[in-house]
UniProtKB/TrEMBL annotation:
InterPro entries, A to Z: DUF4989 (IPR032152), FA58C (IPR000421), Galactose-bd-like_sf (IPR008979)
Gene3D superfamilies for the chain: Galactose-binding domain-like
Domain F5/8 type C: 241-314
Official protein name in the record: DUF4989 domain-containing protein
Domain DUF4989 stretches: 82-184
Organismal lineage: Bacteria, Pseudomonadati, Bacteroidota, Bacteroidia, Bacteroidales
UniProt key word Signal: yes
Length: 326
């Protein structure tokens, strides 16, 4: 009887050892290294083209001086996800009614650096509208910038940016002929000698400011330019522009602009005038320094004037604007 009981116990122990051994074999990772994780599934990256800032509708004037007006905006490339390599994008531009070589791109190519999702901006501009002068009727045109090719997949639903351009019907303008050297650098005495008086009452005028590439202009309220503060207007890595409404018609012979110093002034500006505050006629472009007396070729009668910085260093400012009027 004892021998039989011993045999049963021995058999039970053997079964327990066998089960434990099988259990260990069924879990090969028990007490060992964790298994390698599954590699992530790579997502496709798509390239799209977007405007920098808010797009606007542009207006062109058509007078005896031709079709005039500046169109300028910026675009950038964006990726749907990060790329391990640089992504390059080549652009093309076209506009109804004008040759493509009239459209200026600050760069034909955009680059989205590895590990980033957006490129820097490229500026698109047109200032030569001579090919539209034969049409004296009001007309609407579309300028489109699109992705010609890219080193990654293109999002076909967001591969272009378009702006609308409205050309006014031909009218005889009251402004003089601005061709040639209508704007020249001069002195206060020279401008005053033409029968003009200096006017510094900027607080009586209305200003509208914007930055060319959508940056933030410092001190747009409470500044020396508007005559309601002590700070100058300034911006980093962008350009300052403004429209001034004199709130009455002025007869002007020149302007004065002052900046903090030669390191903070634009190197080139454009001045334009308007009869209604919407459609602009360029007076010309001129190189500038820290203090500028700009004399007009003849008197200009206007209520509205536009100032645009075209070229500058990394940081620019503007402190004062005086007018010379009769």
């Amino acid at each position: 009887m004892k021998t039989k009981l011993f045999s049963i116990m021995a058999a039970s122990a053997a079964c327990a050892l066998l089960l434990a051994s099988c259990s260990e074999k069924e879990d090969p990772n028990k007490g060992g290294d964790e298994p390698d994780p599954e590699p992530p599934v790579a997502e496709d990256v798509y390239v799209s083209l977007l405007p920098v800032g808010t797009l606007e509708t542009f207006e062109l004037a058509h007078t005896q001086n031709g079709v005039s007006g500046e169109v300028s905006f910026s675009v950038k490339a964006r990726l749907s996800g990060e790329s391990a390599e640089d992504v390059t994008v080549t652009l093309k531009a076209e506009c109804d009614g004008i040759s493509s070589d009239k459209i200026q791109l600050s760069s034909q190519q955009l680059t989205v650096s590895a590990g980033r999702k957006e490129s820097t901006g490229v500026t698109v501009s047109v200032s030569d509208w001579s090919e539209l002068a034969s049409n004296q009727n009001a007309a609407e045109y579309t300028l489109t910038v699109s992705i010609a090719e890219a080193s990654d997949d293109i999002d076909e639903n967001a591969s272009s940016v378009s702006v609308t351009i409205n050309k006014a019907a031909y009218i005889e303008s009251s402004f003089p002929d601005f061709s040639g050297d209508f704007l020249t650098l001069s002195t206060a005495n020279d401008i005053v000698a033409g029968g003009y008086t200096e006017n510094r009452t900027a607080a009586d005028w209305t200003f509208e400011f914007w930055a060319t590439n959508g940056g933030t202009i410092e001190n747009t309220t409470g500044n020396t330019l508007c005559g309601d503060g002590t700070a100058d207007l300034a911006i980093d890595n962008d350009l300052i522009n403004f429209i001034v409404d004199f709130n009455e018609v002025k007869t002007l012979g020149g302007l004065y602009f002052q900046h903090w110093g030669s390191s903070f002034c634009p190197t080139k500006i454009r001045l334009s005038v308007s009869e209604d505050g919407d459609t602009w006629v360029p007076m010309g472009e001129i190189g500038t320094s820290s203090r500028n007396y700009i004399k007009f070729g003849e008197e200009v009668v206007t209520r509205y004037m536009k100032y645009e910085m075209l070229e500058a260093t990394t940081r620019v400012d503007i402190m004062y604007m005086f007018i010379y009027e009769k």
